[in-house]
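Researcher: Here's a chain I'd like modeled. Treat it as a single chain, no partners, no ligands.
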Amino acid sequence: MRDTGVLEALQALLAADPDVVDRRELGESAAHARVVRGFVDVCDVRFARRGQELADAGESESPLAVLMDEGRRSGKEATAAQERDRVCGDFDGFEDALATGDVSGDHLDVLARLTRHITDEVLPISGRSRRAADVGEQRIRVAIRTVDQGANRSGGGVPPTTERQRSTTSELGLARPIGRSCERADPFEMPRRRAAA
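Model: Modeled as a single isolated chain. Structure tokens:
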């Protein structure tokens, strides 16, 4: 496995004390945790993939059993790892983006739910990646916007938005709280850049 910045992020987390950091350091620590979390999530994806290969060859039990027994993941988490593997196979760039924390496992989970029934009959595998990405991108943006709007109404997660920010949210992106404002982040931007490279 390659270092996607996880060693530096982990060292920074180990050196930080969240109980006494100022606002800037708190944000930096959260960003470092995002990178570590993404790396661990992609490990689970790769474990699920290899576990399935071994199970298919009759050399191992199911990847769910491996993730649940040795990995101490819940059944839901182990199943999510398998679904994330499917998404990474169908959507170029998402595995690398997950490994660096540019997208979260939750983004892939939403994408997995929205594209679960895209089959070879609906869309041949040769065109699935591009077309599924187009369909999935529209649906995931709507799902993210719905989650963001629910968080605004309930007072959780995303701070109240100004009228300008509300119009930006309607452009179907992901709002990340930064102080009292929202920074726009497109969950498809980094996977596209990585696939194009």
